[in-house]
Specification:
alpha/beta, 254 residues
Length: 254
């Protein structure tokens, strides 16, 4: 029996199954990663996207942020086979939560319907929303980007006049405490914890597989490359997530 079949057995027997996903989940959809040789941080300066710069010079920040957004997402970004496989596992009652480092919103669009059956925790926020720094109102980012393209720099909230910020965790900001708390609780409760397409190097999110392992979960790394957690994981499956996850979902369904 191969690793995918053995992991599928563990998933079928589990009460709580949690998936944790990183940038490798979305590269097949055309979204570049950040840290590889062809990643975004070789095309943009990370220093431009610190929260301190947003506060000090929001107009320049937003100009650079618009260029970053266009490079990341283009025009035709859609969920890929890996997103669909996780969504189908959730629809089948075999996946309870997806915790993601990604801000692309693709997990919510994967699978058979318009929403995902698992709880979705977006640790770093969602790039398709903006949030007002003053009143906290969240809204769709697309109209705000069009206002920026028309010369409104920086964009401001129509309700209170406060600055709009991308609804993502910028460098120098802390993760949302409630979202991180719920993610840690899922890691503690998991019977199976899948770490998918993540380098597992960015804290505090990278500690979640270790938390799951410490509390008795069967842990699996599904990634092209070795991660710091790979030697500890019960399963270390090297491969493309768009191949491995559909195979895993099919094996669970057998």
């Amino acid at each position: 029996m191969n690793d995918i079949a053995r992991l599928a057995d563990r998933i079928r027997d589990a009460e709580t199954v949690v998936a944790f996903t990183g940038a490798g989940m979305s590269t097949a959809s055309g979204i570049p990663d950040f840290r590889s040789d062809s990643g975004l941080w070789n095309r943009f300066d990370p220093e431009d996207f610190y929260y301190q710069r947003f506060r000090a010079d929001p107009a320049a920040f937003w100009s650079d942020r618009l260029a970053l957004h266009e490079t990341m997402f283009g025009d035709d970004i859609e969920p890929n086979e890996a997103h669909d496989a996780l969504a189908e596992l959730a629809d089948d009652g075999q996946l309870d939560a997806i915790i993601t480092q990604n801000t692309d919103g693709l997990h919510a669009r994967g699978g058979r319907g318009d929403s995902i059956a698992a709880e979705l925790l977006e640790l770093h926020g969602n790039a398709h929303r903006v949030v007002c720094e003053e009143c906290g109102r969240r809204t769709d980012a697309a109209p705000v980007r069009r206002r920026i393209e028309s010369g409104e720099l920086p964009p401001r909230c129509g309700d209170c006049g406060g600055l709009f910020k991308p609804d993502v965790v910028l460098f120098g900001e802390r993760l949302d405490e409630d979202t991180l708390y719920r993610a840690r609780r899922y890691a503690q409760r998991a019977d199976v914890f899948l770490a998918i397409g993540s380098s597992l190097t960015v804290e505090p999110a990278a500690s979640l597989p270790r938390t799951a392992d410490r509390d008795g979960a069967t842990t699996a790394v599904i990634n092209f490359d070795e991660t710091p957690f790979s030697p500890t994981a019960a399963f270390d499956i090297r491969g493309d997530v768009i191949d491995v996850l559909p195979d895993l979902r099919a094996s669970v369904a057998e």
